[in-house]
Amino acid sequence: MNLISPLEKVKGVGAKTGEQFALAGLHTVGELIDFLPRAHEDFSEVVAIADIHPGKMTIKARCEKIETRPVRRGLRITTATLADDSGKLQAVWFNQPYRETQLKSGEEFYFSGEFEFNYNKYQLTNPSAEKVSDMPVQTDRLLPVYRAIKGLKSQVVRKILSELRPLITMLPETLPAEIVKNEKLLSRADAVLGMHFPKTSEDIARGRERLAFEELFQLLLASQLNRQENAKLTGWHIPFEQTIVADFVKLLPFDLTGAQRRAAWDIIQDFERKTPMNRLLQGDVGSGKTVVAGLAARQAAHSGFQTALMAPTEILASQHAETLATLLTPFGVTVGLLTGSVKGTARKTLYEQIYNGSVDVVVGTHALIQDMVKFHKLGFVVIDEQHRFGVKQRQQLLGKSKHMPHLLAMTATPIPRSLALTVYGELDVSILDELPKGRLPIKTKIWSPNSQAQLYELVDAELKQGRQCYVICSLIDENADNEIKSVTAEYKKLQNSIFKHRRIGLLHGKLKSEEKDAVMTQFAKNELDILVSTTVVEVGVDVPNATVMLIEDADRFGLSQLHQLRGRVGRSTHQSYCYLITSGSSKPSPRLKEIEKSNDGFYLAEVDLKMRGPGEIYGRAQHGALNLQIATLSDTKLIARAQKEAKLFVSRGDDLLQYKQLAGQVEQYQRLTTLN
Questions:
Q1: pLDDT tens digits, 104-152
Q2: pTM for the whole thing?
Q3: Is 3.50.50.60 the CATH classification of the domain at 44-134?
Q4: Element (DSSP H or E) covering residue 437
């Protein structure tokens, strides 16, 4: 038997078990060995029920009585009476009705969970339950817990893996021996054994360290190799003209922040190099990224090069086009807008202007990557909210130039340092960490739905001052299956009662583009007092007069999204407010407390990464393929170690093809993360 043998060849895998494994995406022996535990339960310290005290506890007991009852829509509670020779206690599970079937056998189980005071009594909350007879015969009782996929139970995985133990001891090494030695890592075989069959908690810790290091090393080596490839490319030479830049800055109606000046200088220096720029400009909401891109576009236009700026939505593209036209038209630089709404003769004319070079800066959506769009001399590409685009789409735009153009990727989602080192390791990074002068920090407060009347009075006081307000809901239509306020219901409620004396608009993703634009234009012109909307206002809406952001059911939104929404206000010298209304009266989640506490997007990005993983920060299309089972992108110390070894590997010129498995994974990451 070897790693590519089908699982059906393993003792104990019959047709039904084989089917379960297949549904979980596990077909071969190697795939099962690489299916690592998501956690480990410690059943080593068992206490008698009579000796139990608050905290994480493990007892050995049988179930005397069990029942499941619905409490409210979407919530079912299972309660059980557990007993041993010393006494009885109650256990409770939320939305785990299968516990009834599991525990009715009358057999003894190990139960491990939090013993706490809940619902006016002490009880064991959501404990795991393992049959005593299923427990491996080992004194330590450290039990691996595997992800439950398509009904595949942990005990089935454990049983089959025990058959494969001899094969695991002979797993080949996947990292260069020098790295294993330098970093004092376990061998791959020992690390995998330590994860599947731990004898001590140190086995788990050392196994995790080795496997997490390997995952990060693969990712960082891919970035280093991409950087090396990028250095071989020849880009356009765009010389620095001091007077051109100075005149642009002089005409601005505001002073650039120190961070904007530093970022602009980074770009200007990159323009002069032989290799194409590959830079990420990250700045919090409202930090002035478009102005920096505009300054660079002005320099490019003076040297006869066109700029293309691609944004993910029409609203955002229109906003950029308007800003850039204001900044660049005084210098004779022409700006064109290409979106799905530009049709017929206007579209055809714009195609011709792009082709003959009479348009210097083209701002657009995905429409820019269509075959019909041909540039005269594309030298500079800006991709805004770049995580919203796939690798292929970014490459299609870059491919519209004879040479590799200079690339500036922009994001208003601050990227944690650890993510910048790993996923974005091939990019140079510029950070805008200062807000323009005169901006006041937004005051954020969590509100209970019971205090809404008082909150609406505060909002109305702002509206009396001539200001405007956003009200954000998470759904479009009412849905009987959940309790989340829908945007249409909220719109009607505010219009017919609380704010019937105010002008209210409705915005959501199901409206046609023309309808969305019409509503946004009304709001921007102060023809509406309140805009009730879904999260379509999250990006690219700039209304300086709006000072209140009120988010319904705020606990249903992600941390990054809440911060983005909050950034729609606070865009002038007026004091702005963000009110987070919870969906119930229970205590606010840690996520809401963090957003209430801090306006710093970079701090919140680090918190978000720890809470939620790379997800949205990296991009929907890509992050799932990162395939990180063990490593966390918030482990900065391990990242630093892996980065050091990746740089040494590249500088030594080691042959990656010597390490077949490593080479395969690195190549996959190279394709996944590369922007060029």
A1: 878 899 998 889 887 678 899 999 888 888 776 544 578 898 887 776 7
A2: 0.72
A3: no
A4: none
